[in-house]
Amino acid sequence: MPSKLFSRRSFATTLAAGLTALSLPVPAFALTEAGAASLVNEVVTEINRVIASGKSESAMIKDFERIFVRYGDVPIMARYALGPDARSASSAQLRNFTNAFQGYISRKYGKRFREFIGGTVTVQAARKIKAGYEVRTKVKLQGQAPFDVTFLVSDKSGKDKFFNMFIEGVNLLLTERTEIGSMLDRRRGDIDAVIRDLASAG
Amino acid sequence: MRRCFKSEEDSLCVFYVPRQFCIRVYDLSASTVKDRFGNPEMMMTLFPQKLLNRFRVPAFVVLAACAGPSPDADGGGRIYDPYENTNRAIHTFNRGLDKAFFRPAAKGYVAVIPRPMVNSFNMFAENLSLPGQMVDYLLQGKPKEACTTLFRFVVNSTVGFAGLADPASDFEIPRADTDFGVTLHVWGFAEGPYLELPFYGPSTARDAVGVVVNLFTNPIDFAPTRPINNLGLYAEIVRRLGDRGLYSDTVDSILYGSSDSYAQLRLIYLQNRRFELATDNEDAYLGLYSDPYSDTGTPVATDATDPYEDPYAE
């Protein structure tokens, strides 16, 4: 059952597998369950550090954007959010869209940082999936019942990076794809217009 | 046009009919189930009559949920919305209602009433709903959950000052979270088309039936002495007000911050609801078929247990 905490034995096995993988010289095994789980802890620590810094909101959003670029596979997320239109887009359009998307996501979710003050993320399980690794966590925010957040991590970009997140089953990437899709509809499929809109959205 | 299949869990038989006949009112007291035109051929869902009789579900009217084009099982963002135009009109109405009344009222409520009191009122409403949830757990064939729900109700109603506090959570009695929509899911009914209900918000045909049925299944409403009629309903409205106020940033970003709030709300509702139902199923499933690999390491997921789309594959 997914929400069960690591049992001692499976945790030891995972750890052992992680250590074995570390000592193997094969790059294909670079990312393991344990590695994926520790990546989640790492990013949570980084975000909490920004929140605790007490900077202005706009400065914090800049910091969140840096974290997003460092830990997230932004190009693949932007490409997915753009949907089928990504195939017909020129490489300059894709680059501009990726930049605009990166700023939009950082503003949209960065603005809500107050909700995460004093929040804790507990990694519960990690497993291999087709696209990479799935890390299931329980998030506890102040004054709320704990809820499930699942992170998806992959090393297909060459580095271990996040590429999606599910909050109580809600697929963030799919939600953004729907949002960008609506924006494209409104602009009759004009990607450049959507890129301009994104610069002020979020 | 009409297909019939047997659900794996039980022997319910579900007929599919053209979309325009999807929502129907049935008189279950009649020996033969007919639609409101008296035409038995248009019938699409045969309710398990014995089950209904046994549990004395209010048998006068049952809205039968129509099945969608594909089964419930996939956890993705599949959307079946044949009534999109109507739904969008209702969405515009609901959004206007929220903007004019509900949002300001909710913001005022959480601004004036201190947070611990808002939490207490929420707990009070939750506590009142527990006997109804216990009934749903029983209908789902989950006596253990029904018992803990009853226990939670007893503890919070007594030690917890009529439900205003939540000592049951301190005693680690699990929270209850079910409704008649879940019961219908357990019984094998399909999700049906997406519906946005006036005043209520996003739903599906199956969940809409659940909402209506749950109005009549809380034993508290049948208690010989009760302080106020429909207390549960009023408490629920206050709870929704509190939630609207507490999560106002999230709700605002969906309703007023997105380029198509209808599509966003629909996607978020469907995914979240399917997630709740799947988690529910997973417990039962894993209880029956324990994973032989689970003790020796995490197995590589097969297609059946890997619901994720791979954006790198595009």
UniProtKB/TrEMBL annotation, chain A:
Asked whether the keyword Signal is assigned, the reply is yes
Q: Which UniProt keywords apply?
A: Signal
Signal sequence span per UniProt?
1-30
Domain of life of the organism encoding this protein: Bacteria
Presence of keyword Repeat: no
Which is an annotated Pfam family here? MlaC
- Name-wise, this protein is Phospholipid transport system substrate-binding protein
From TrEMBL, chain B:
Query: Taxonomy-wise, where does this protein's organism fall, top ranks first?
Result: Bacteria, Pseudomonadati, Pseudomonadota, Alphaproteobacteria, Rhodobacterales
Which keywords annotate this record? Lipoprotein, Signal
| Stretches of the chain forming a coiled coil according to its record | none
- Kindly indicate whether the keyword Translocase belongs to this entry: no
The answer, when asked if tRNA processing is one of the entry's keywords, is no
PANTHER family attached to this UniProt entry: INTERMEMBRANE PHOSPHOLIPID TRANSPORT SYSTEM LIPOPROTEIN MLAA, LIPOPROTEIN VACJ-RELATED
Pfam families recorded:
MlaA
InterPro entries on file: MlaA
One example of a Gene Ontology biological process annotation: intermembrane phospholipid transfer
Put simply, this protein is called Phospholipid-binding lipoprotein MlaA
Single GO cellular component annotation? Answer: membrane
- Residue numbers spanned by region Disordered: 295-314
Protein family: Belongs to the MlaA family.
